[in-house]
Amino acid sequence: MKNAIISVSIYALLSACSQFSDEQPSHASGISAPENFFPANIASASPEVSHEISRNILQQKHLFEHFWKNPLPRDFNLTAALNSSATVNSTTHSFIGDLPNENRCPTADLSFEMNTRTSGFDPNNAYWAMWLSRTIQMDESSILDRMLTIPTEESHLITRGILGLQAGVFRIDGKVFVTFRGTQDIADYIQNAFIDTVPGESAGLPGRVHQGFRDNFLALWQEVYDTAISMGAAETGVWLMGHSLGGVLSTFSAYNFVERNIAVHGVYEFGSPLPGNELFQKAYNARLGDRTFIIGYESDITPHVPPLPDAAESFSNVVRPELKALAKILTHNLNYRQVGSWYTLKRDGLLQKVENLADFQNRYYNKMRADNEKNSLPTLLFTNRRYTHDHETEYYHCGMRGFVTRQH
């Protein structure tokens, strides 16, 4: 749930900023937000919203500096805090229930199998990609124990300082798999908030990409690549997968693998946000568009952010009215696009391909607008919790298990 809220941090802050004073807070520690935290291309805003832009940037900067100096404890559980919060109006918007566990998921006699004979969407490939994406979210001992239940030949977990466990490279049944962890703690959340696009060249990527995701990728890529090669990826090729942030890191890694002539059999992403601009999208799809699959579960907001330019109008309708023009400018100027093929997953395991993501996003934000009685995006995310709870890996895993059960 925390991931979904942070993934829309800039937009949520735009909606929430009227709650904060214009007065500059004191900074005894001398720590301030990085200068490049806010998108540089808002400078092209029209004159009529320039005052609103400057006011809200100042307020966002103050808010960010507060959390930069006073980060949440690493063991802070926002989901638990919200579930016990008296400010949540549970009578207005009902929650769908407790998180599912494997015993409550649809069952099928499933054995590990990845189909390397096709680069197209494959039900078994999709399910086991989700299984691995969920596994990497666990603690290290649980990951290694869980990997013993399938024909794992070699495992390597990658950690990075305060970020902790970030990725796993596995050799399973003679094949190499790279799976990236989604956002876990405050250090990840802060990096996710850097939503401006930057040239991807330093990360071996075309076009412009999300700054925070690029930085996260750069911290991991070399070890991921070296480990995959040591496990035989040059001969076997690789599979890549991940949930949320992990999906975007899979996208960036896939492009770098094919640039080094390493075969990529498939890229499966679950609840992953948009990675880069139109130039990135076109270059990526030319190489890997036919074997990259993004799956969004029910009402999960994360795979819909940042919004597509063609959904700017409907997205702007879910922020405060006085910020509508600014929201549209940011969305058009950032010019985020999705890659590969996009699918929507339902609770009963029904999986459908989305042929026009812009139309789908417009319907999504229009539905959000209908739920958004107070015209405040943060209020909606906190009171109608399906938009954030649907991002949990347990829901994706149960949905995919239901899907593959339908195929048997």
Show the helix and strand layout.
Elements: H1 2-7, H2 9-16, H3 50-69, H4 78-83, H5 123-135, H6 140-147, E1 152-160, E2 164-172, E3 175-180, H7 186-192, E4 197-199, E5 208-210, H8 211-230, H9 233-236, E6 238-243, H10 245-259, E7 264-270, E8 276-277, H11 278-288, E9 292-297, H12 312-316, H13 324-334, E10 336-337, E11 341-345, E12 351-354, H14 357-371, H15 377-383, H16 386-389, H17 393-407
Parallel strand pairs: 3-6, 6-7, 7-9, 9-11
Antiparallel strand pairs: 1-2, 2-3, 4-5, 8-10, 11-12
Helix pairs in contact: 5-17, 7-8, 8-10
Walk me through this protein's architecture:
- This protein has 408 residues and is an alpha/beta fold.
- The chain has a single domain, classed as Rossmann fold (3-Layer(aba) Sandwich), CATH 3.40.50.
- It is 43% helix and 15% strand.
- It has 17 helices and twelve strands.
- It has an eight-stranded mixed β-sheet with strand order 1-2-3-6-7-9-11-12, with helices on both faces. A two-stranded antiparallel sheet has the order 4-5.
- Helix 5 runs antiparallel to helix 17, helix 7 packs across helix 8 and helix 8 crosses helix 10.
- 45% of the residues are buried.
Please outline what is shown here.
The chain is of the alpha/beta class and 408 residues long. The chain has helices at residues 2-7, 9-16, 50-69, 78-83, 123-135, 140-147, 186-192, 211-230, 233-236, 245-259, 278-288, 312-316, 324-334, 357-371, 377-383, 386-389, 393-407, and strands at residues 152-160, 164-172, 175-180, 197-199, 208-210, 238-243, 264-270, 276-277, 292-297, 336-337, 341-345, 351-354.
